[in-house]
């Protein structure tokens, strides 16, 4: 037999039948069952021999298989011809691993098979369909047993009829024997009478009418005896003994199959109970998994909150450091170019419009590339084991507003999420960049909105003086 590749057979349109062993299985379960077995191509080949080792359960995918068994005289007798979708080898597969019959393919045949250990391993890893597989296997054996019982019952009736006929024939032979003995007695009497008559007429040269009649009757009696002897069936007792032995053997087989059916039903009940216990254990594990996921989700939320607080603390610390530097360099404004000290004066209403727009059209707003303005930004990985510093004037990418505080945004380095940080709005030009996207989108929507970042400016120094007054 030649081993075939599953991919080639599937491409050719072959698949396991949906009846028999695969009855009531989902497509995914059938696919999993297919992958555990193997495909074979055979043409007029011996698959298993009666009395020899056989550890496989076979299913006919295409073609036919003939099952034969030796009779009492050692001759092979055909017991079944199986076609597509039928299985064989169940008895040897379940007990003993010894083939109970000889199986041969007829013509070109495609078989699928799985050994005992593979099926046990498959049932262990697919507990949800273990009960169905066992029920299907028990059903196959029950059908086979029903057919065997039907055949045994039919043969039993035929044997009983044959034995009855032989007994009647035997009784008739006894009657024939009695009649033969009576006829023999009559012939002896006739012969004695003939010899007496011959003694009286021993001198006559010719027979008279009575002598001729006597001779004729004697000849007819002899012929009748010969006919009766030839009609007697001398082999009838031997046939009766042989048929009785055959009937006894079939009765033993019927007892064996009934016992096998009871054992299979008992094993199936145990498997159903084990499957039920497995489902209960599986449900318990699923609940534990759900609880673990919820705890993990809560831990992640707490971790995000702590990270946000940490980033906020870092920003506050950076702001304090910045104020300290400003206090140490009060002459910066004196030496600076006045034009560099002008910043936009933006109404809060416009800022709120931009934030509301980003919430509604986040995919249009983010990500966006912005510039670091006042202080360097420190980007860190999730474990806080590595940092990347982005200097003032360099670019970072903002992905969204911070979920805890709208005064901060979440930023990363380029297209990678490896290094990230929470950055204060005032440390970037993110609002100016979002304003440009907002104005462009409003134009597309047919609305004319003025960008205050471009038209309203004032002196930071003047503002400081005005606030002091």
Low-confidence segments, given as residue ranges, are 203-225, 338-343, 458-469
Number of DSSP strand runs: 15
Radius of gyration: 52 Å
Q: Mind describing the biggest β-sheet?
A: 7 strands, antiparallel
Structural class: alpha+beta
- Determine the number of helices (DSSP H or I, runs of at least 4 residues): 13
> What gross morphology would you assign?
rod-shaped
Q: Averaged pLDDT, please?
A: 78
Percent in helix = 55-70%
Q: H/E order of the elements?
A: EHHEEEEEHEHHHHHEHHEEEEEEHHEH
Q: End-to-end distance, in Å?
A: 103 Å
Query: What portion of the residues fall into strands of 2 or more residues?
Result: 15-25%
Features:
single chain; 469 residues; alpha+beta; four-stranded antiparallel beta sheet; 13 helices; rod-shaped; disordered C terminus
How would you portray this structure in words?
- The protein has helices spanning 6-11, 27-36, 90-94, 116-125, 127-200, 209-231, 236-328, 332-335, 348-360, 362-365, 430-444, 452-455, 460-468; strands spanning 2-4, 38-43, 46-48, 56-70, 76-82, 87-88, 102-115, 342-344, 368-371, 377-380, 387-390, 395-401, 408-413, 416-424, 457-459.
- It is α+β, with helices and mostly antiparallel strands and 469 residues long.
- The strands form 4 sheets. Strands 1, 2, 3, 4, 5, 6 and 7 form a 7-stranded antiparallel sheet that branches. A 4-stranded antiparallel sheet has the order 9-12-13-14. The protein has a two-stranded antiparallel sheet with strand order 8-15.
- Strand 4 and strand 5 (76-82) form a beta hairpin.
- The longest helix has 93 residues, at 236-328.
- The chain is rod-shaped and about 170 Å long.
């Amino acid at each position: 037999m030649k081993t075939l590749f599953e991919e080639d057979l599937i491409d050719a349109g072959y698949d396991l039948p949906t009846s028999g062993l695969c009855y009531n299985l989902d497509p995914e379960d059938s696919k999993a069952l297919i992958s555990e077995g193997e495909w074979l191509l055979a043409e007029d080949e011996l698959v298993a021999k009666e009395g020899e080792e056989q550890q496989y359960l076979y299913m006919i995918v295409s073609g036919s298989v003939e099952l034969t068994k030796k009779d009492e005289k050692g001759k092979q007798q055909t017991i079944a011809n199986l076609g597509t979708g039928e299985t064989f080898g169940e008895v040897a597969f379940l007990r003993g691993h010894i083939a109970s019959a000889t199986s041969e393919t007829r013509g070109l045949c495609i078989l699928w098979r799985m050994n005992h250990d593979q099926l046990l391993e498959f049932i262990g890893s697919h507990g949800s369909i273990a009960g169905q597989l066992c029920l299907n296997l028990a059903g196959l054996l029950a059908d086979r047993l029903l057919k065997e019982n039907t055949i045994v019952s039919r043969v039993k009736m035929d044997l009983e009829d044959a034995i009855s006929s032989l007994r009647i024939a035997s009784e008739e032979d006894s009657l024939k024997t009695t009649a033969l003995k009576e006829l023999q007695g009559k012939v002896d009497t006739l012969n004695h009478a003939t010899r007496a008559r011959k003694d009286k007429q021993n001198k006559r040269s010719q027979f008279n009418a009575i002598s001729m009649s006597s001779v004729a009757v004697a000849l007819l009696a002899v012929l009748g005896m010969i006919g009766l002897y030839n009609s007697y069936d001398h082999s009838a007792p031997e046939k009766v003994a042989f048929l009785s032995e055959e009937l006894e053997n079939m009765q033993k087989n019927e007892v064996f199959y009934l016992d096998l059916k009871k054992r299979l039903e008992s094993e199936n009940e145990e498997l159903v109970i084990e499957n039920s216990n497995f489902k209960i254990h599986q449900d318990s594990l699923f609940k534990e998994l759900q609880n673990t996921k919820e705890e993990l989700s809560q831990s992640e939320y707490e971790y995000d909150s702590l990270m946000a607080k940490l980033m906020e603390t870092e920003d506050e610390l950076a702001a304090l450091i910045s104020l300290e530097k400003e206090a140490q360099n009060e002459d910066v404004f004196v030496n600076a170019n006045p034009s560099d000290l002008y910043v936009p004066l933006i109404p809060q209403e416009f800022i709120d419009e931009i934030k509301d727009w980003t919430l509604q059209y986040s995919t249009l707003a983010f990500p966006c590339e912005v510039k670091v303005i006042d202080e360097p930004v420190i980007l860190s990985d999730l474990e806080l084991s590595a940092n990347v510093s982005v200097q003032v004037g360099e670019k970072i990418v903002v992905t969204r507003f911070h979920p805890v505080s709208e005064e901060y945004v979440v930023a990363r380095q380029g297209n990678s999420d490896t290094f990230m940080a929470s950055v204060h709005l005032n440390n970037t030009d993110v609002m100016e960049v979002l304003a440009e996207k907002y104005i462009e989108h409003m134009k597309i929507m047919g609305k004319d909105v003025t960008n205050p970042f471009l038209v309203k400016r004032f002196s930071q120094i003047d503002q400081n003086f005005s606030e002091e007054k």
